[in-house]
Predict the structure.
Amino acid sequence: MTQRVIYIKSNNFISPGQLETSVDWASLFGNARPIALEIGCGTGHFVVDRAQQQPDVNFVAIDIYNKGCWKTCKKTDALGLTNIRVARAEAAYLLEKAFNQTPLSAIYINCPDPWPKKRHRKRRLVNRDFLLKAWHHLTPGGDFFFSSDVSDYAHNVATLLEQNPAYRNCLDQPVVHHLPGYPISKYMQRFLDLGQPIHYLQFQRDPAKQSEIPTQSPATPRTGFRSRWARVHNE
Ligand SMILES: C[S@@+](CC[C@H](N)C(=O)[O-])C[C@H]1O[C@@H](n2cnc3c(N)ncnc32)[C@H](O)[C@@H]1O
């Protein structure tokens, strides 16, 4: 069954055409504040809270899920938030196309699709290559936040981050169950309501280790699952 695609009219929605080439984010937001990216924003609960906590940061919220983008725009518009823009885009594609000139002050990934079966784990969004790509797109000192309801996914990402000398852990432990002030996303709430913990990570592109640049090119093409999403959509 194919789902009806909702046409998104919001002024805070970035049209696909705008993302085909390098984006002038300062003119898109009307100011040159730091830019943070939420990958897989879902219905937008997290980003609207974070954007209100941090009015001096511009947030780009992306998802490949049309209805999620629509809901995120609706929340943004209803609250009159001027520091959020929403795009229906695949993460690796967007980083390559639209953020090749603009470093990010933070990257947020909350409750990414878990792919719990062992044979499906290669489909997970965050892996070693993705973390190298993210490193290239973060500003020195920029934060990489990751949260998951799946312990094994969170610990795997923490191990990969710890193995990369150009990242630094910002917390006491690689994975924690409380991150004070961190907004709760819709999926996080769902698991918290069931009495299940959320596993949080906060690492940073270490500003003291700029010489230890990972060797992998940031432009490595993404293959396999989701590669058909190598474009942005709103049709
Ligand atoms: C389990 S949901 C979590 C949504 C939200 N972050 C939350 O915590 O409520 C994962 C979301 O990530 C999106 N997603 C998965 N892979 C993606 C990718 N490569 N680029 C952008 N979004 C992606 C999915 O469409 C989905 O909306």
Notes: The chain has seven helices and seven strands. The CA atoms of residues 46 and 183 lie 6 Å apart.
